[in-house]
Amino acid sequence: RRERQRFVDKNGRCNVQHGNLGGESSRYLSDFFTTLVDLKWRWNLLIFLLTYTVAWLVMASMWWGIAYLRGDLHQAHGDSYSPCVANVYNFPSAFLFFIETEATIGYGHRYITERCPEGIILFLFQSLLGSVVDAFLIGCMFIKMSQPKKRAETLMFSRAAVISQRDAKLCLMFRVGNLRNSHMVSAQIRCKLIKSRQTPEGEFLPLDQCELDVGFGTGADQLFLVSPLTICHEINSESPFFCLSQRSLRSEQFEIVVILEGIVETTGMTCQARTSYTEDEVLWGHRFLPVMSLEDGFFRVDYSQFHATFEVPTPPYSVKE
């Protein structure tokens, strides 16, 4: 079957774009810091470089302007003449003086004299502005680098979901795993069924979201994710798949969105991993191959069999039938 448009990709990216915001786009500027953190890396680096470059050139131009207005550029800076900034004769020397001051290098060749109140005021302004710019941009880069998005790439989901019997009950199952030795603290999993439907009043809901029970009442949704786990949704009278059979599965159109959340043990930050399964990726009458084996003093996980399934005898009828 031709692959259709997904609401959530297999890698967790949501295929939703916001358009025609009108005047609401100004809300992004009201929270400019978060907007900057959410940008892609290439735009962050471009803004980082442009901000510092423009700030350096503007401040260097102000130091050059003070020297130009005082006539320091054409005077010999000796004992008989006291300039605003010693040994500043042109724009490159004014730029170097600004860099030395901003970076607190202090080579000692260029310095502000006590007979230049405008220079002292500009120096104070430069120090305050530099601290604000450094705190804003460096803080933004630090938060972006420490985001736990990459941690989600080491959380695996099986490529397909399966429907088969477990404990004499028809169940929808999929597998999750953690590739790292560091644990996900307070890991919790949720499932959403996204399917179009029409209400009795005639209202059409194109992307109606329905919760799939994966063990809320029993606590099975709270995961101890040290080895691959098979998540199970029991298909009963409360399940939206109550009328689903092997035959009707071929004509259905739905998407199951899986959301795995937890706290990264090493950083203490919350991480979220997502994936989805369309009706083409739900295998009726299949079960996952075992991946755990006991060896000398430890358990080994064979991730080469993580996505593998095999057929098992399963009634082709729905639970309702």
From TrEMBL:
Presence of the UniProt keyword Membrane in the record: yes
One annotated GO molecular function: G-protein activated inward rectifier potassium channel activity
A GO term from the CC aspect: monoatomic ion channel complex
Subcellular location: Membrane
Main localisation: membrane
GO biological process: potassium ion import across plasma membrane; regulation of monoatomic ion transmembrane transport
Catalyzed reactions: K(+)(in) = K(+)(out)
Domain Inward rectifier potassium channel C-terminal: 155-320
A Pfam family: IRK
Boundaries of every Potassium channel inwardly rectifying transmembrane domain copy: 8-148
Keywords: Ion channel, Ion transport, Membrane, Potassium, Potassium transport, Transmembrane, Transmembrane helix, Transport, Voltage-gated channel
Membrane topology, as annotated: Multi-pass membrane protein
SUPFAM superfamilies named among the record's database cross-references: E set domains, Voltage-gated potassium channels
UniProt site (Role in the control of polyamine-mediated channel gating and in the blocking by intracellular magnesium): D134
Family of this protein: Belongs to the inward rectifier-type potassium channel (TC 1.A.2.1) family. KCNJ3 subfamily.
Record's protein name: G protein-activated inward rectifier potassium channel 1
GN (gene name): Kcnj3_2
